Amino acid sequence: MSGGFDEITIFGGNSNPQLVEQICDYLGLRQGRAEVFKFSNDNTFVRIGESVRQHDVFVVQSFSTPVNDSIMEMLIMIDTLTRASAGRITAVIPYYGYGRTDKKDQPRVPITARLVAKLVVQAGADRVLTVDLHAGQIQGFFDIPVDELSAMFLGAQYFVEKRLERPVVVSPDLGNTKRARNFAEILDAPLAIIEKRRIGNRDKSEVLNLIGSVEGRQVVIVDDEIDTAGSICQAADVCVANGAEEVYATCIHPVFSGPAVDRLAASVFKEVVVTNTVPVPPEKQFDKLTVISVAGILGESIQRIHAGASVSSVYRSVGPYQSRMPLSVQVGSVGGDGLE
Length: 340
Prior knowledge:
By secondary structure, the protein is of the alpha/beta class. 29% of the residues lie in helices and 26% in strands.
C-alpha cells in the first residue's frame, strides 16, 4: 500500500550527496534528476529534470556548512516541487542547523530554530523527517507532522560490540543527561555527569564538577553534536584526571567547525565515533575517526512513511542493511553494525 500517492522519488541538495546515494541504494531506487546550482550573482537555482506529478517526494538535505546555502537549497527545491504538482513532499533533514537557537535564553535574541521551521512549512513541505534534534521542543515549531529518529542506538550498538570490560557513560553537561542515560542503559553501564557553565556566546565553558566515578574505567562521552570540540575535549581531560583508563567520544552530528579536528586529533580520545548526518570531507578526517551511516534508518523510515506504516519500529528492521553497509573511516572500512 502506498498511502494514496504514486511512486516514491528521492531528491537531494548539495549538502550531503553521499548520504543521498546510500539512501537510494537502500531503497533500490535511482536518485531523482535535479540541477541545483548558483548563478554568478550568487542566486540559487533549481530545475527538476523529470515529472513528479502526484509522486511521493522526499528531499534530503542536511542543514550543514554552508548552513544558509543548504537551507535555501531545501526551500527552493520544495517550492519547485510544489509548483511541479508533487503529491506529497517530505523534507528529510538529517541535521537541523540552528537547532541550538531554540529558546530566548538572553534578552533581545531570536528563536531561529522556529523561524527555519516556519520557512520549511511555508515553502510547501507536508511533513518532516529528521534525526536527533538538539531540543525536543523543536518538533512543535512545525505545523506539519514531524518524525524524529534517533541514531544514538547505532553508536551504542557499536560500543556494545567492542565489549569494553568496565565501561562508564559520561554526559558532558547536564542538558544531555537523558540521552547519555539511554545510551548507558544499552551498554548496561553506570552514568557520570560533568557539570559546567558556559561563558557568554563564544563557545567557551568552564568545567565545575564531575558527578560520579570514572576511575579505572573505559569512558564513553556521549553528546548530540561536536562543534568546535572544546567542551568534549575538556570533558575528556577531566575524566583522565579522575583516573579513567581509556576515553572514547561519540556523537550524532559531527559539525567539526573551527579547531575541532586539530583538537580531536591531539586529544586523549582513543576513538571518536560519529554518524554521517553531517558529511565529513577528507580534510576533516583523522586516524581516530569512525563514521557510521544513518542511511539504513532513514531509508527504512522513508519506505514506511510512503507505505503509511509505523515508523517507530524502524530500529528492528534495518539490521540486514547495516550489516552489509560499510562504515566510512579514514583508514579504511569496517564492518557494519547488525541490530537486534
